[in-house]
Specification:
The complex is a heterodimer of chains A (464) and B (774). Chain A has twelve helices and 18 strands. In chain B, 46% of the residues are buried. Classes of the chains: A alpha/beta (464), B mainly alpha (774).
């Protein structure tokens, strides 16, 4: 990628703030044509409405008819039979029985958007949220659908959306990773969900495990930064000389960059994770006890602090591939899981808004798929995987709040109006960041790849 | 490639489908796997002809090169020159032992001018015990080895009975060192309990113990049944075990076939349960043994009986001695009491004695008064009693205590073997509708994957029950290793492909966990078949296979192409990802190898092999460190990483950040990420600091007294090469800066120089050249 001169100057200026200024500036002048900092912040294809993304992911498949897709007929028709076109991965004609939602729905905000009693706090900020009620994707398997939601491909390992955004836009703070994942555990498909795959490795997500020491070894062992800088200057010289002779190995670029990032992180990260300066009011907003170092409230508040510091793409995962939203046996589990994220997310949206950040921060919430509005009998306590219709939402960052996009049939089985495929969802997300999803490509194995493969339509209706 | 005319292909397919027409199976479910028998990985293994006249012959060292060069030439490419000898010796050492060459080892090779120097280097390292640790680690990944058997979701606590899992780890390492043929290696792991007659053995030989421990192969999946009694956990264990077996040994994903006919592989659901029925005699849902119950004492039943009775007799003798010691003390105590009673007026003496002896609550008011008044006088304190002991008493007690210690030393304990064995007659195994144990379908008879079986390898012709065991798992081993069968062909291809992956960085099939139809296509199918055929004809021994690959030009190439003339085509433009191997691949070292290399470089490396794992302790947030209270020896933290306590999720920070995987099943490939957390660890982790200090210590003591000598030796130890003039200058600057600073802070010249050296050593640990092998 050729960078305009102003960007290059800006970049060198930034680099001089990092370590090894003398050595680096000198070497970069020498290395004509060598790749410049792949993480330097840059503009997309068009004017962006959002500068960053906070991507919230609920693992396991959240039931749409129990959360955001209010289907009164489902309650009325409870225990009536329907013919399902597929059951547990097999197509055919299956007689199944409708099951009413377990939770009541209420209208919230000026917009009067329906939200179930699982998310009362989200209800209170619903006028900032645009709900997508006609989402669909190809796969009803956890691994594949999780990958599809993150990488646009259910079939193969591909770069994660966060990696694509990092690759497209770089990042605003060279001292923090461009793409960070705050997750107590990996979802289905593991770390592949935030992998960079064929994109340069510096774009892969850095996982932060909530805890007392979220990033191990963040504190320097030397008394003064300049002592470490002496070591790093020599290291930069050695590694650059080594890399120069091995021009084709981008892993080596990533390695060099990782030391530069690490050096900056030592200063910036402890600060970002230190919540002691947050007021009681703010902690309360997130439902967080003072001193707590885990929980979704912690993840949300830390996300805001990292967003403030210029991290481009933040992903927050609530739970791993165990004890998650995958309520085959008992939908009652949804209550526990919703309680854990409802207030923190509402707090995040409120906090971002109060600080004037919501306008430029796109907050996205999604899951791999919905859950069947029916089961083998009406008394069944659980719901199965359902990818034909589910719900997601976006807020802030140029999104039309208080809007509901897309409708399903009266039982929430199939999408009806304005269906949105995962590819459309991703295309819209990129669009708001100023990226044309058809033009953000990477040549790999002889062809150009992109997040949306050969699909995806930007949904203009959801944009304010 | 010659094109098969469409019509001919269609005819061929018709013919194949007639030949392998779908047959209804024993319970009426039809299966059609016929067309898939022609898929490359499922065919009989035959050795393809080695290509001839493929290109310039001067670089053809082995048949492997002919296969590789043929594809290179077709694409307008050629081999890169051989790697420099110092790079090659480094590569060979890492690949065979997981350790860098010591300066002496490197010098031995670099100064050896004999034409077979390289071959002898390989032979030498293949016979190093570190070979088994390196290649054993690869296999431990494949089977998903951990030192625990249970669930591992709690950071601070490890639940369940976990004793002595290490016997399996040691079995694997020993197996690689002995170059145990894979057919035997696999048979022992699948069915070692059916190979040795452990049930009737009067005494266990080391061979019996090792062969039983081999069946620990089946004990790697998460087994929560010790604490969680629900059926679903038992089933979950079985399905996970099947998945590990499928991925690890067959190179196929079986998981989908649990619920329905596999969509991408020719594996009907029926086949999944056929395979499952081979392990249900050992893992019988209706007669389940939890992990603790499954463990077998490491001595035979007869030995245990004799041991228990000997221990009982010793315990009796100890009690006898203790009784006698007590008697000596009691006698002296009584005497002391009588003496003291003399100080009490004679008329109340008897009453006082009774009052003091009575329990406080039982005393009447008079007794309470007496006890209160004389209690202190009549209480014999421990130290008073000790003082009152006569020299004769003391020597009698001392003698008996010595006897007790001697007796205690004679008490024998035994360890455990985490094995499996048939727990009773085979239960009926049912297909599970949708994979749900709550909805069992028709019964399924034991068998194998249909696509890889014919009459000669039918279950009935391979099964030979032995006393106390159904023989089903032995039959599975035979099915996988009977030469000339499709199943053995696949098993051999899986191993050959992974061996190639470990030596070149990428498998011929890059998805080395999946050689099936949904896996990636092989880049060099003929070569893979040839390697697999050679492997089998060499008696399933891996050392000749490894050596053959390492002797090739393909392996020996440099990792970079220098001095290309403008006339030559640019290989980077033709094959940017180097899939065709026009140069060697630069590979990041695995997490364990990085740590081991640091230990070797600093010379703190502790080469002790085998036995109990080195204990780690864990903080609530999962950060692991050595459990200093429980370390068996001071040098234990410097043992190789393969001997550290292995959990599923929580690893030493340094290991975790360098992609040590979460062990939730078979791991066939490691990730090689490059993220900032790794650099943070290399800069700030205690291990990096400690090892850099030790490395500096070594250089200080082994090099001369000038900075240039230190720099030269440090580069030689860490990177197996001399620094160039520029690097020497840069390094000298760093030493100078730090020496000046330390001197200013009051260090003596020597101290300052030595401390400065640590900084250079840490830089070398952090260099790309240290972390990557080329």
């Amino acid at each position: 990628m050729n960078l305009p001169d102003t960007t290059r100057r800006e970049f060198l200026h930034r680099a001089s703030g990092g370590f090894g200024s003398v050595a680096l500036a000198g070497l970069w002048n020498d290395l004509q044509g060598a790749p410049l900092n792949p993480l330097v912040a840059r503009q997309g294809h068009h004017l962006a409405k959002a500068d960053r993304v906070i991507f919230l992911y609920s693992t396991g498949g959240v039931s749409h008819v129990d959360t955001f897709n209010h289907r009164p007929r489902l309650t009325v028709d409870h225990a009536k039979s329907v013919t399902a076109s597929r059951w547990l991965n097999k197509t055919g004609q299956y007689k199944r029985y409708l099951i009413k939602p377990r939770w009541a729905f209420q209208q919230y905000g000026e917009s009067g958007t329906w939200v179930s009693d699982l998310f009362p706090q989200l209800g209170s900020v619903i006028d900032d949220i645009c709900v997508f009620n006609a989402m669909h994707c190809e796969s009803d398997g956890h691994d594949k659908a999780t990958l599809a939601a993150h990488t646009g491909s259910a079939q193969f390992a591909r770069p994660s959306a966060g990696s694509w955004v990092s690759y497209g836009l770089g990042t605003q703070n060279q001292n923090l990773p461009s793409f960070m994942v705050l997750a107590p555990a990996a979802p289905y498909a593991g770390a592949q969900t935030w992998g960079s795959d064929f994109l340069p490795a510096c774009h892969q997500g850095t996982q932060v495990v909530p805890g007392k020491n979220p990033l191990p070894n963040i504190r320097p062992r030397v008394a003064r930064p300049e002592l470490q800088k002496m070591e790093l200057d020599l290291l930069a010289r050695l590694n650059r000389t080594h890399r120069k002779a091995r021009a084709a190995d981008q892993a080596l670029d990533a390695r060099i960059r990782s030391f530069e990032t690490a050096f900056g992180m030592q200063r910036e990260a402890p600060e970002a994770f230190d919540l002691s300066g947050e007021t009681e009011a703010t902690l309360k907003l997130y439902g967080l006890e003072r001193g707590a170092t885990s929980g979704f409230g912690w993840q949300c508040l830390v996300a805001r602090r990292l967003a403030e510091r210029g991290v481009r793409f933040l992903e927050l995962i609530d739970v791993g591939s165990n004890s998650n939203w995958d309520s085959h046996g008992n939908m009652a589990d949804h209550a526990r899981l919703a309680r854990a994220i409802d207030r923190p997310i509402a707090g995040l949206l409120t906090d971002l808004k109060q600080r004037g950040m919501l306008e430029r921060t796109l907050v996205v919430w999604t899951t791999e798929f919905g859950r069947t509005p029916f089961n083998t009998n009406a008394n069944h306590a659980g719901r199965e995987h359902h990818n034909f219709c589910f719900s997601s939402w976006m807020a802030g960052g140029g999104i039309r709040g208080g809007h509901v996009h897309g409708t399903s049939d009266e039982h929430g089985i199939l999408t009806d109006q304005d269906a949105v495929h995962t590819h459309d969802f991703n295309a819209t997300m990129l669009h708001l960041l100023g990226i044309d999803h058809e033009r953000l490509t990477y040549r790999h194995a002889g062809r150009d790849f992109r997040l949306t493969d050969v699909h995806g339509e930007v949904i203009h209706d959801v944009i304010a | 490639m010659a094109r098969v005319p469409l019509l001919a292909a269609a005819l061929l397919l018709c013919w194949l489908s007639v030949l392998y027409a779908a047959e209804p199976s024993e319970n009426g479910r039809t299966e059609s796997t016929a067309n898939a028998r022609g898929f490359w990985a499922f065919r009989h293994l035959t050795s393809p002809r080695v290509p001839r006249e493929v290109g310039p012959t001067d670089r053809l060292r082995t048949p492997i090169d002919a296969f590789i060069l043929r594809t290179l030439v077709r694409n307008g490419l050629s081999f890169s020159p051989d790697a420099a000898p110092n790079q090659l010796v480094r590569r060979v050492h890492f690949d065979l032992t997981g350790l860098p060459p010591t300066p002496t080892q490197a010098r031995t090779y670099l100064t050896d001018t004999a034409p077979d120097a390289y071959e002898r280097l390989i032979d030498r390292l293949l016979s190093s015990p570190h070979f088994g640790e390196r290649w054993g680690r690869h296999w431990l990944d494949v089977v998903g080895y951990t030192d625990l058997v249970s669930y591992d979701g709690d950071t601070t606590g490890i639940f369940g009975f976990i004793t002595d899992r290490w016997r399996f780890r040691d079995y694997v390492i020993d197996g690689f060192n002995a170059d145990k043929p894979y057919d035997r290696f696999l048979a022992e792991q699948l069915a070692g309990d059916e190979i040795v007659d452990w049930r009737n053995a009067t005494a266990y030989t080391p061979e019996i113990v090792a062969t039983l421990a081999a069946t620990g192969f089946w004990r790697n999946a998460e087994d929560r049944s010790e604490s969680a009694k629900e059926l679903e956990y038992k089933w979950s264990f079985l399905h996970n075990t099947m998945q590990t077996f499928g991925t690890g040994v067959l190179g196929l994903t079986l998981r989908c076939a649990r619920c329905h006919d596999h969509k991408h592989e020719p594996i009907p659901q029926q086949d999944y349960y056929r395979l499952l029925s081979l392990i249900t005699p050992a893992f019988n849902i209706k007669n389940w043994k939890d992990p603790k119950q499954r463990a077998i004492p490491s001595i035979s039943a007869a030995q245990k009986k004799a041991q228990d009775s000997a221990n009982a007799s010793i315990t009796g003798q100890i009690a006898e001695q203790e009784k006698k010691i007590t008697a000596v003390r009691a006698f002296r105590k009584q005497q002391l009491l009588e003496d003291r009673l003399k100080s009490i007026p004679e008329p109340i003496r008897v009453d006082t004695r009774a009052a003091v002896a009575a329990a406080p609550k039982a005393r009447n008011p008079v007794q309470a008064y007496l006890a209160e008044k004389f209690g202190a006088t009549l209480t014999i304190k421990k130290e008073d009693l000790e003082k009152a002991l006569t020299p004769k008493d003391r020597s009698a007690i001392g003698r008996r205590q010595q006897k007790i210690s001697a007796l205690k030393r004679q008490i024998k304990s035994h360890g455990w073997i985490q094995a499996i064995y048939d727990v009773g007659p085979p239960p009926a195994t049912h297909l599970l509708e949708r994979g749900e144990f709550k909805t069992p379908g028709p019964e399924v008879k034991p068998g194998f994957l249909s696509v890889l079986s014919d009459k000669s390898t039918a279950f009935s012709s391979l099964v030979k029950p032995v006393a106390g065991s159904s023989g089903r798992r032995s039959a599975l081993a035979r099915w996988l290793t009977t030469r000339g069968t499709p199943a053995a062909g696949l098993a051999a291809r899986v191993v050959a492909n992974r061996t190639w992956q470990h030596l070149t960085g990428l498998g011929i099939v890059s998805t080395s966990e999946n050689l099936g139809m949904s896996g990636n296509a092989p880049t060099h199918p003929d070569l893979l078949n040839w390697l697999a055929a050679e492997y089998v004809s060499n008696g399933w021994r891996i050392k000749p296979l490894i050596k053959m690959i390492m002797m090739s030009t393909t392996y020996r190439q440099a990792s970079r192409r220098e001095g290309r003339t403008p006339a030559e085509p640019n290989p980077l433009a033709i094959d940017p990802e180097n899939r065709l191997l026009w140069r060697a691949r630069l590979r990041r070292l695995e997490s364990e190898v990085i740590r081991d290399a640091m230990l070797a470089t600093s010379d703190r490396f502790n080469a002790t092999m085998g036995g109990q794992p080195v204990p780690l302790k864990y903080r609530r947030d999962g950060v692991a460190s050595f459990d200093t209270d429980k370390l068996p020896a001071a040098g234990s933290p410097w043992r190789r990483s393969v001997y550290l306590f292995q959990r599923r999720v929580y690893h030493l920070t340094m290991q975790g950040v360098f992609d040590q995987p979460t062990v939730a099943g078979s791991v066939c490939r490691r990730n090689a990420s490059a993220v900032a957390l790794q650099s943070l660890s290399m800069l700030n982790d205690g291990l990096a600091l400690e090892q850099a200090e030790q490395f500096a210590h070594r250089v200080w003591h082994q090099a001369g007294r000038s900075p240039d000598e230190w720099i030269r030796l440090a580069f030689l130890i860490a990177l197996t090469r001399q620094p160039d003039e520029q690097e020497t200058r840069w390094s000298a600057e760093l030493l100078q800066q730090h020496t000046t600073r330390y001197r200013k802070n009051g260090s003596t010249d020597d101290e300052a120089a030595r401390k400065a050296l640590m900084h250079l050593c840490r830089v070398l640990f952090n260099s790309s050249e240290f972390l990557y092998v080329e």
